[in-house]
Amino acid sequence: MAETATRRKRGGGRAGAAARRGPAVIEQMPFSPPVNRDRPVEPLTEEGIAAIHDGAMRILEEIGIAFLNEEALEILREAGCAIDGNIVRMDRDFVMEMVARAPSQFTLTPRNPAHTITVGGDTMLFGNVSSPPNYWDMEIGRKVPGTREKCADLLKLTQYFNCIHFAGGYPVEPVDIHASVRHLDVLYDKLTLTDKVMHAYSLGKERVEDVMEMVRIAGGLSEEEFRATPRMYTNINSTSPLKHDQPMIDGCLRLIRRGQAVAVTPFTLAGAMAPVTMAGAVAQSLAEALSAIALFQYVQPGCPCIIGTFTSNVDMKSGAPAFGTPEYMRATQMTGQMARYYGLPLRSSGVCAANVPDGQAMWETSNSLWAAVQSGTHMVYHAAGWLEGGLIASPEKFIMDCEVLQQIQRYMQPEIWATGPEEIAVDAIRSVGTEGHFFGIEHTQQRYSTAFYQPFLSDWRNFEGWEAAGGIWTPERAHLLYKSILDSFEAPPMDPAIREELADFVARRKAEGGAPTDF
Amino acid sequence: MAETATRRKRGGGRAGAAARRGPAVIEQMPFSPPVNRDRPVEPLTEEGIAAIHDGAMRILEEIGIAFLNEEALEILREAGCAIDGNIVRMDRDFVMEMVARAPSQFTLTPRNPAHTITVGGDTMLFGNVSSPPNYWDMEIGRKVPGTREKCADLLKLTQYFNCIHFAGGYPVEPVDIHASVRHLDVLYDKLTLTDKVMHAYSLGKERVEDVMEMVRIAGGLSEEEFRATPRMYTNINSTSPLKHDQPMIDGCLRLIRRGQAVAVTPFTLAGAMAPVTMAGAVAQSLAEALSAIALFQYVQPGCPCIIGTFTSNVDMKSGAPAFGTPEYMRATQMTGQMARYYGLPLRSSGVCAANVPDGQAMWETSNSLWAAVQSGTHMVYHAAGWLEGGLIASPEKFIMDCEVLQQIQRYMQPEIWATGPEEIAVDAIRSVGTEGHFFGIEHTQQRYSTAFYQPFLSDWRNFEGWEAAGGIWTPERAHLLYKSILDSFEAPPMDPAIREELADFVARRKAEGGAPTDF
Question: What residue spans carry the region label Disordered (chains A, B) (predicted)?
């Protein structure tokens, strides 16, 4: 396939020329997160919601959750929970009282306030793929370990595409940087290459505090200003089944104490780390997430929390995780109903099991993205660039996904289904009658340039036109676009003094040895 | 890409071996049309519905529809409509009275009664791609005119896949058969290679009557039995804007008079044959469809009618039709609301503009299929095999689409979101606790083999496993499967006497010269 790409690239033709046409590269929609006013798809009846809620509460009351974090155990003991070793049992009144403190909506303000996002309400947000250890592109044609260079390339896409609203974790893990200082180098890259909302991994106090400090510096903020409103977030996974580990909880406590946001996303793979039944997997996921959110709300009442879902199923043949399946879609919708029941913003994902950016990748990703729409998801993680169940980041897939994300953004614009007299257009229909056509009439001319979604990657020419331009398949077109975007990328502006302060911080912390690597 | 396919095919490996493993070829879900109980997505408010209805009615009352069919003009004159040349104006009371006669649900019974389908209610039906003049596959690697052989190959897929519930028009136009006798040869192939519900093109009285006669013979039915319940259907397009042509209306009249079903599907491309505004395009589409349905209900009260939508938009750059766009999705949902308002079963489509079965093909097709789900569509035309805006039929695309259709079938099974105590599984969660896993426990073992959707085309192995098996991309896997299915295809049983009667009918009608070709 890589050879094919190279051959086609050389033959490039019109698509290649178009893709290389200058700094703008493509015409894209503005940064304007979709407003999702569609009624969600709700498979659960009221009884079903009550049954899953009761299941989650029974897990918390009767079975309990292991907190491998001494501070959390102390706090929860003080709060009146039953502690048995590291197992915490919470009664439902406590959980519901704590969860009720969480806001249903809040903002995250990055260093560029124009990229402020609202989490919750009707707003739908997309973020880049996060944390794959490996990278694949059409030119390399193999799966290779992530590097700082490739990570930076994907960060440029994160900044470039207006349909990407927040920066997730590292879009690929740069394994060529030592783990003790990786967060310093990547955050420097992230903060200088992008000006969107930042994420910190909860992997030890030094990393979390360093990242918060760097976000504060990049924003030109005093500590008081940093704390005044959420600027960034972390996302943690529980160690399913029923366990929260030390650094994840520690990181969240550090963030909420400085006014920042946390997402809690159990990874409950039905049949492996959770029951084989989707309702059971969802109930367990909720119990795990709510136990952490209850802790955070006890510590910092009203702190911004997001409940995440990552409930999918395994492949019955191999035990491997599968994504974008029918069961994944329904679990996401079910969790959406439960998130509304608890009044919490919801995070889900754009995911697939496919290894290359082909048809399977796109039907699985489409399934997961439509499930995000249907579930009323607020934050869509991994919305662009994910392959192989999250083990590979691919720039071609990133760009293909952005085409789909833009289409969702357009899909949400109510002017499509406006029904005023000018849209019903009886006069235009009368003027054309039974013999004419609508191309040339004024009603069309007035609206033509903005009436329809204009793709940047889809090729809508007929076969002959497409063939004459090189017969370029979608991933190869995406590859050309990727190269053009990198060629013309301009980093967002940053005050040189702030850049220097950031660099000094990185240098100082490196000199101090960075962070421990015993995780 | 063709070279790549051939190379990979030779290297075939595990996927190839699996695909060639015998007559069953794949394990697929049973013939069992999905029951869609999801609440539809409804962009229109009640006022929006009223506005579009009023627009459609004003078109019928004030502008009128051209009927290029003398018989229809006579009938509508008798019915009290205003006739001006070939323009018919109908008042809304007449239209609504006639449309109210149409059943909201009916059955179609093919020669194998086990493949009887219900059109309407909660049932969702999928049919093969219909009418592309051209064919493309990975082996040929070029766009070539359709032939009887390729048409038969695609009919075998239509029969083979249980997720295809009805046979549409010719899955590719066999241009190697003279147009005067094409319907005879292809219907012979269709009726012997498949036992699912049949379609007749409304292209002249001889074709329509011949096809009805062949369906009657294939079913072993007397004329009385044939008429007793719908056995088949036709689908007509209006000649937008605002025109019904002679053979389309004639064909429908012939079918309804013998008790068969009709679908009326205007092809209203916003900005070309309809207003650039989607509400206008939908209103015009409804006016065109309802005018024909009113005629049919006047002639044959209660005859089974389906309202179709094929409202999409053009590419702003080239004027070429685009499919599976955000505007297409919303127009389909809007038409779904209107179909429910009129109490008519709805037809929409599985469509894309892509020229090859790649990522674009699948995101566009996924968009259109999810729009079908969201709109409450009953019959999904072109659900498998469509490329290039309907100008190309592809077996690889057919098989890729069937994978997505099976996933929709699975998605609709309520056991996924069952919430009984056994599904909430608190005891299973308790038994695993915080340290175990769910693979081996009884709760999992009891349900493992049926708990999750099992794909036949998706490759869920990790990258290394996929690579070791040849690194086969989705369309190439689909190609291998296509060949295996053809190799092992067995036609459904047919009484030899009936087969002989069919062959005799074809021979006799050919000897008589078939049908005129002046259309």
Answer: 1-41
Residues B339 and B437 in one domain: no
Number of other CB atoms surrounding residue B3 within 10 Å: 12
> Residue A381, SS3?
strand
Q: Has residue B9 got a pLDDT over 70?
A: no
pLDDT of B415 strictly over 90: yes
- Shared domain check, B365 and B259: yes
Q: How far apart are CA A109 and CA A126, in angstroms?
A: 15
B167, B199 contact by CB (below 8 A)? yes
Provide CB contacts within 8 A for A198, sequence distance 6+: A110, A167, A187, A190, A191, A211, A215, A231, A232, A233
Amino acid at B269: L
Nearest to B51 among A327, A424, A434 (CB): A424
Count the domains in chain B. 3
Q: What percent of chain A clears pLDDT 70, i.e. is strictly above it?
A: 95
Q: Are residues A120 and A260 in the same domain?
A: yes
Which residue from B87, B419, B438 is facing A51, i.e. has the nearest CB? Answer: B419
Phi-psi region of B209 (alpha: psi -120 to 50; beta: other; left: phi over 0): alpha
CATH number of the domain within which B354 lies:
3.20.20.480
Nearest of B384, B383, B385 to residue B373 by alpha carbon: B383
Q: What are phi and psi for residue B295, nearest 5 degrees?
A: -55, -50
Asked if A278 and B416 count as a contact pair (C-beta separation under 8 A), the reply is yes
- 8 A C-beta contact, residue B476 and residue A334: no
Q: In this structure, is residue A302 part of a structural domain?
A: yes
Are residues B407 and A325, on separate chains, in Cβ contact within 8 Å? yes
Which residues on neighbouring strands pair with residue A135, listed in sequence order? A144, A393
Please answer whether residues A376 and A344 qualify as being in contact, where contact means their C-beta atoms are separated by less than 8 angstroms.
no
The reply to whether A324 and A447 lie within a common domain is: no
DSSP B414: G
Query: CA geometry: angle at A408 spanning A187 and A135, to 5°?
Result: 40
Helix (H) or strand (E) holding B409: helix B395-411
Indicate whether B65 belongs to any domain: no
Eight-class DSSP state of A270: E
Shared-domain flag, residues B125 and B164: yes
Spatial contact of A79 and A255, defined as CB atoms under 8 Å apart: no
A417·B475 Cβ contact <8 A: no
Report CA-CA distances (Å) from B428 to A130, A279, A288, A491, B434: 32, 12, 16, 52, 12
- The two three-digit tokens of residue B197, written as one number: 């519900």
Chain A residues with CB inside 8 Å of B370's CB? 366, 370
Specify whether B138 is located in the same domain as B268: yes
Interatomic CA distance for residues A153 and B457, integer angstroms: 32
Q: What is the pLDDT of residues B212-243, one digit of tens each?
A: 999 999 999 999 999 999 999 999 999 999 99
Measured at the CA of B12, the angle between CA B9 and CA B14, to 5 degrees, comes to 155
Q: How many CA atoms lie within 13 A of A309 on its CB side?
A: 37
Q: For B392, name the nearest residue in chain A, comparing CA atoms only.
A: A463
Residues B476 and B333 in one domain: no
Contact criterion met (CB < 8 Å) for A452 and B1: no
Query: Which residue out of B6, B362, B476, B477 would a mutagenesis test of the A interface target, given it has the greatest number of A Cβ atoms within 10 Å?
Result: B362
pTM reported for the whole predicted model: 0.95
Enter the tokens of residue A36: 């999702």
Cα–Cα dist A198/A112, whole Å = 11
What is the token pair recorded at B447? Answer: 């349900």
Of residues B320 and A155, which shows the higher confidence score? A155
Domain ranges, residue B433:
426-452
One domain, residues A103 and A209: yes
A149 lies in some domain: yes
CA distance B241 to chain A (A): 5
Q: Which ipTM score applies to this complex?
A: 0.95
A284 closest CA partner among A460, A14, A63, A434 = A63
Q: For residue B437, tell me if it sits in a domain.
A: yes
Chain A neighbors of B65, CB-CB under 8 A: 434
